[in-house]
Design brief:
alpha/beta, about 45% helix, six-stranded mixed beta sheet
């Protein structure tokens, strides 16, 4: 006859209950973005962030990626996070013109010299104002891209050369900047840019150096203007209800990874890849990389002044002291050594 060992039974019950509780508390997070999975930022940015988050949560937060617009169009990713289509969504904040005027400060031409340090500064600065612009979502982090340049089918060296051209702008404000210089804009997302150039819908575009290779655009443009024309502002947004349902340990892990430190860290390798790609173009005899002369650069700087005034007008209409916000941002960038210096 076999006798029941009550101690063994209680221990087994406790272990099974503990395992069931842990399993019940595990949260699978749907992370949507619109980059192709091979993009360096997916591999060295998003995945590194997600692996660190899972570890910090004791394995109870797991991230499943939905890249390449699998859950929706690039411009819709902010609303996908708000509406719960995704738990986390990465968005270009310039893809919806006029919606995030304060965030548009980061898009201003010739503002950022160091995108890594600049991302840390910009996150801290924007976090003070994000609640008003990002209703319905939790801001995880906001960061900048590596410096973007002008890439074209024919040489562009002076602002006057844009007159009559059709350009794919990287953001709303840069699109307005192009328009002020006499260009027409064609609004397509980054993954659609190569086709627009190949078909002749666009003559040129603003893009980071490395993304020209990632999206195959090096096959349809061969002229490059080597100056840090702009950066884009990207936000990693989280569905508020997803966050609210988490336990204390999970929230602490999220809070740790939604920070200024991670804003700079998440894109540091992307920035390194961008610098390497720039050098690759310089070394490639099939491509012409033009460094503007002092007078050409001055012409670009003067031409960009109007778009900054336009940003100030937009932010003023939104109820902010635009000059105070701008001065605060510039001073913080300069203190961190992240501001652009001609």
């Amino acid at each position: 006859m076999k006798f029941f060992n009550w101690k063994t039974g209680i221990l087994a019950l406790a272990l099974s209950t503990s395992a069931a509780t842990a399993q019940a508390q595990t949260t699978d997070l749907r992370f949507a973005h619109w980059l192709p999975e091979p993009h360096p930022f997916h591999q060295t940015g998003f995945k590194v962030w997600a692996e660190s988050l899972e570890q910090a949560s004791g394995g109870t937060l797991r991230v499943s990626f939905f890249p390449a617009q699998q859950l929706g169009a690039a411009a819709d990713h902010h609303d996908m996070a708000r509406d719960g289509i995704a738990d986390l969504a990465w968005t270009n904040m310039g893809y919806q013109p006029g919606r995030f005027p304060v965030a548009g400060a980061g898009e201003m031409p010739f503002l950022i010299g160091d995108s890594v340090a600049g991302s840390t500064v910009f996150h801290n600065w924007y976090a003070q104002y994000a609640a008003e612009e990002l209703r319905g979502v939790k801001l995880c982090l906001v960061h900048l891209q590596p410096s973007g340049a002008m890439h074209s089918k024919r040489p562009i060296t002076h602002p006057d050369h844009l007159r009559g051209m059709t350009l794919r702008p990287p953001s709303a404000f840069i699109g307005r900047f192009f328009s002020q210089l006499g260009a027409s804009n064609v609004q397509v997302s980054a993954p659609e840019s190569r086709e627009a150039l190949a078909r002749g819908t666009a003559d040129a575009l603003g893009f980071p150096w490395d993304s020209i290779y990632t999206f195959g655009i090096d096959q349809v443009v061969d002229h490059h203007l080597d100056m840090p024309l702009y950066v884009n502002v990207f936000g990693l947004m989280m569905n508020q209800r997803t966050y609210d349902r988490m336990n204390a340990q999970q929230k602490a892990a999220i809070d740790e990874h939604c920070s200024a430190e991670w804003a700079g860290r998440i894109m540091s390798r992307w920035n390194e890849n961008n610098l390497n790609a720039r050098q690759r173009f310089i070394d490639d005899p099939g491509h012409t990389v033009h460094t503007p002369s002092e007078s050409e650069l001055q012409a670009w700087l003067e031409a960009s002044e109007q778009i900054r005034l336009d940003w100030q007008a937009d932010v003023t209409r939104a109820g902010h002291d635009a000059q105070a916000l701008w001065s605060e941002l510039v001073e913080a960038l300069e203190a961190a050594g992240a501001a652009y210096r001609p």
